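Input record (Table S2, row 914):
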Amino acid sequence: MNSTKWVYRFQDGSAGMRELLGGKGANLAEMTKVGLPVPPGFTVTTEACRAFYAGGRVLPEGLLDQVAAAMQALEAEKDQKFGDPKQPLLVSVRSGSVTSMPGMMDTILNLGLNDETVQGLAEATNNPRFAYDCYRRLIQMYGNVVLGIESFLFERELHRMKEAFRFAEERDVTVEGWKSLIEQYKKLIVSHARVPFPQNVYEQLEKAIEAVFRSWNNQRAIFYRKVHQIPDDQGTAVNIQAMVFGNMGDDCGTGVLFTRNPSTGEKALFGEFLSNAQGEDIVAGIRTPLPIERLDRELPDVFAQLARTAEQLERHYKDMQDIEFTVEKQKLFILQTRNGKRTAQAAVKIAVQLVQEGILTKEEALQRIEMSHLDQLLHRAIDTSAELDVLASGLPASPGAVTGQAVFDADTAEQWAKAGKRVILVRSETTPEDIHGVLAAEGVLTSRGGMTSHAAVVARGMGKPCVCGCETLRIDGSSFTAGERTVREGDWISIDGATGRVINGVIALKEAEISPELAQLLAWADEVRKLRVLTNADNPEDARKAREFGAEGIGLCRTEHMFFGSDRLPVVQSMILAETAEERAEALAKLLPMQQEDFEGLFRAMDGLPVTIRLLDPPLHEFLPNLEELLQRSIRLSLLEKWGAADGGVSRSTLEALPVAAAQGEDSAVTVAAEKAKLEQWIRKVRSLQEANPMLGQRGCRLGIVFPEIYEMQAEAIFRAAVKCLAEGVRVVPEVMIPLVGHVNELIAMRKLIDRVAGRILGEAESGLAYRVGTMIEVPRAALTASQIALHADFFSFGTNDLTQMTFGYSRDDAEGKFLTHYVEHKLLPHNPFQTIDAEGVGQLIVWATEQGRAAKPDLKAGVCGEHGGDKQSIFFCHKAGLDYVSCSPYRVPLARIAAAQAQLVLGDKERDK
Ligand code: PEP
Ligand code: MG
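Output record (magnesium ion complex):
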């Protein structure tokens, strides 16, 4: 005998039982506990759902008995009876997972109606029209959810009935109309499902519970879980609750209320209300609802009670709430509350407001902030100076501005996005079946539905711009018209989710800025965090942006990025091509002032903060054209030589455009033969530099050791720039970093070189400038021999990109495109180790190297400068490992500051010192 408790009445649960009762069930229980007007009911647990699947999709033993007992208790509470022809009890059956998955699973309302009880309901309410309307809704939902009959078949019958009786709107339908529709629905069910609609109310209930459990594994729910990383084995609970009716007349209705504006964060009730309507009507976006303020005019007492309840719930849950309510004959019922989904902008604003209102502490507010929200806040908006060709305006459902090509169905959106196109999904309304299209699109535009319609909720959750309810658009297949104008599939449009505008063509966007509320949160984060946050930047503009975002210096300047400019590359190439030391010196002498200027720019932008400059790292062939391209040019030149320009298909201007000529500073007098000789020299050089595995070849300090003059030039440029900036009054803190050290002798040799150059330049200037020399730790051997290396390094900067590559033995250029995605999808790896540090493997090397390094040199500074420096989980790891800093790209600096504070709040110092 199975004694598991599968069923909990609302009065027996609490908010803390979310795992077992699902979010909705736990909140209904909590609200019941605090005395809010919640219709009574009970929850079938997520554990029962798991048992249902474990048993081969069969309800577990004992469940139905427990449901029957709970139903009896419900009957007593409501003074009604399930299946009773006089006083019938009706219930709703709703899914409710642990993590909110709006609209992904199924719901059935009005359960308990049959040919007899519908008459009882008609008499008890003295409203037969209402009773038969409820009954037809039940048959449709049951037919769709339990028996799997497509909704459009029911909609078609509804349409036919309306035509036959000449009803313009649903509200015009008479009781005869509904009765006739019910007969048609029953026939539809028999013809499609080969079973009649059950008259036994307990059979209805059993089948409905099974169907909700099954809906956990419908396609859209599976897809949603994948996108939101919700575990597949969580299961859903089922909530069975006495019905209340919003569709009994004009003093009834249903609505959704956010306790603050979920788009902007403004402290004002925000929501929508549909009078004389039932539950699902509002979310389905079929009728456009009225703003909540109208309820104040129409039913002021209900509105006042709703406002008080909203405040009570917000204080209770210490967060902005998304409340579903129904008004039955002027009486308010709360059907659900949950922490409201919100835009990034609203999340930050609300977190700060809640602190100011004394509801949250600063620490709690910081922990509320989601990284994805910060990511979005650093999104772009429409440049206000841009001239806009506005086609139409809808509701501003999810902020951010985007430009893309219009597509009109989810599959096309997905296909086009896969082909690398940027698309905006345009639909009259979206349904959960469209979710893959929403995911693929840059933004969503709908012509129907309100701020809480499916499109709006899903887009906000995904952080995608959305304009909805744009009713002036006429969407027709694969085009829409707005006034006189037509936009067809593939045409470029833009939407502004902050204002609701739909704009013709491509628009100019402006970069993100930090709002006063975000600045406040960041200031609180700075009070808390222990990790410092630096940036990876290699030009003054990025450096300034990063500083604006709070970077405390440059943790990595990849100097090779300075070599790719159109004025630099030819000089770098001639340096590589040089046959003699003199030729190389000549090219380096040209590069020196350019590099010096680069470094001056960085020192000025970072006045007073450290600037860590990494000497040249990539293999030299990266600066030359690839061999294939050169060989092709050579063939064309041979043809030109043989048959002349016309027949060879190569014009003189093409020839002159070849970088070979440019690099050598030749003019148009160049002859084909001379050109060919140069090309051959290139081909020889590229061949000589070719390596079987360049990422493990001649790069990093190996290059500096074999061609010391390159590093000498860079060191000279750094120190000359420092001297110049010092003279201007800039406080310069230079740090020189050696890449790819694997053996201490490499570092010793390179450090000697730098100290020698520093002595020469600084000695001349007698400036007494303090500088540091450190090393990247990105070769596993360097990590393992950290105690030796630390003796010659002032700092360690973990290059976690290379360290991951070399520890796993994965080539990072090949892994992601080939097997890594497969590994992550099939759970061979918990995550992509190039995004989130592999704490168990690569992490061990970091911990070991830091400990050993500090044992040898207690004041050794250590941090991470690989891509992981901007990833929350990796930042938590760095905090635990006791590192001093992380360095990340400028736009991730605010995110890293918050994540570092969260790490301190969650893990504290203890973990860090361990
Ligand atoms: C690293 O390897 O982590 C690193 C920062 O260097 P790069 O990505 O330039 O190789
Ligand atoms: Mg590296």
